[in-house]
Design goal:
five-stranded mixed beta sheet, binds zinc ion, 13 strands, Rossmann fold, binds guanosine-5'-diphosphate, Ribonucleotide Reductase Protein R1, domain 1, 293 residues
Amino acid sequence: MVAAFGQRVILEDAAGQRFPAFVGRRGLRAVCGDRVRWQRPGDKGDAIVVEVLPRARVLSRPNHRGRVEVLAANLDQVVIVCAPEPRTDPFITDRYLAAAEAMGAAAAVVSNKSDLPEAAEPPELAEYRAVGYPVLAASAHDGTGMAELSALLAGHTSILVGQSGVGKSSLLNALVPGIELATASLSTSTGEGRHTTTATVLHPLPRGGALIDSPGVRDYAPALDDPGCVEPGFREIAAAAPHCRFADCRHLREPDCAVKEAVESGTISARRYESYRRLLRLTNTLGRPEWAH
Ligand code: GDP
Ligand code: ZN
């Protein structure tokens, strides 16, 4: 499924053909990226979605009622966009990285606006590289790094996330040729024009794979379900944890903690460790916090 506007959806078949459909049954909800079974009653008439197949990885966020809302399914890569202006808060990037780890998705960091004169590389980018995340310098304006970015996205189902103003829409427009036309034609075929600006849409990429454009999560770091997700969200901390004296070490005040030793010796970044503690505190105190920023 490539787009949803309430009960009206757009499906794509194995041959890449797109067509509108309805989600028939009450309580059945299909989201962007879902694989579904559908039927066409009679020869004509609209296709009806009858079943949503099990989801592998989902991206969700708490909605305004405090419930967790699934925005997209079966994506396998989260690309976090940051920029020198507005200067990205590295804690937010860490949160997105942790969310990607919790989802079981790959993650990469794109440092956009490299054309700006003040674009000296912020120190956290070296930390991300050191723990194994791909980090790309890019510019949606002068095209720097765009070939590397499309290679990174090729063959994956990815989503671009990051704070407002870092250039996600500009990158999307550069990566998905005709994105505005595609969105307009989706709205005509569903007759739901007014919803298109808020809908989550999956765009096929020229080199294979797809990019999910979700205005709902573009500026939103998703919540982690429970404090147990925080440690695996920081891969260098998770890697050191088996060497702690206690199997359930939280790496806070416990003795013989391999994580704290690694922070003291400089093997683990003190800033990333601080970020881990902050996220653990947030998750502990709030459960499923609605993190606005
Ligand atoms: P979004 O909120 O993340 O979708 O960001 P936008 O794509 O709307 O971009 C926000 C602002 O940054 C706009 O004024 C863009 O023109 C500008 N911008 C986006 N990409 C670049 C870039 O690579 N270099 C420069 N200098 N400005 C950019
Ligand atoms: Zn420990």
